[in-house]
Fold each of these.
Amino acid sequence: MVKEKTKKYRGTYYGRGKKAGRGKGKRGGKGMAGLGKHRWIWMVKNMPDHYGSHGFVRHSQKVEVKAINVGDLDRTSERLIETGMARMEEDKVRVDLEKMGYAVLLGGGQVGKPLLIKVGRATEKAKEKIKSAGGEVETNGGDKEE
């Protein structure tokens, strides 16, 4: 005997549409299919970091070298003496830039007073300006520029 419900739905798709009632129909694709299209909202809610690049690999490390200009040293020499980072020697200001954490002395600015400076490296322009003001620059190699 055929039930009334079965008889009612014969020739139709039981209210599911044609493909939905068959096998794996109406699931919108397999796996991650449709994440950029019809499954976008699901992806944004459940997998917000799915798209885009995340992090990076540094193949070479950038070393930041701390440098100071001769003009900055000349301008701040009084403050350096007050704080004990520099001292007066024979009417010249002695500054150890290595102890202050500087690696390079650059030639920017003007020098108005004689400075005795100990530093790892110094540019030729910086050495020239210090020498013309009556000072000296001692670099890592121990060579004094007079």
Amino acid sequence: MTIKSIIEQKLEETFNPEFLEVVNESYMHNVPEGSESHFKVTIVSTAFVDKRLIARHRLVNQTLEDELKNIHALAIHTLTPDEYFAKAGKVADSPECLGGSKQS
């Protein structure tokens, strides 16, 4: 089972999201082909209603505690259904990698 699929499974089971997208962004970084080191998660759930952003992120981090030991970066976008609707499903793009051999 891939790290991506484990992340998806755990987030589905914990948050019962209305929308979930887990993107392996490792290809954007200076890592070997096929790596699972950088992820972007967009999750929409009623579990986030009345919770501050830091509390939402802590919930996700707690859920993925074991996986975070084996990955380098996790970009998290946590939204309530109303927030997701208001943003028309748009979340920020991840920045380009400036690490490793890509530094100027």
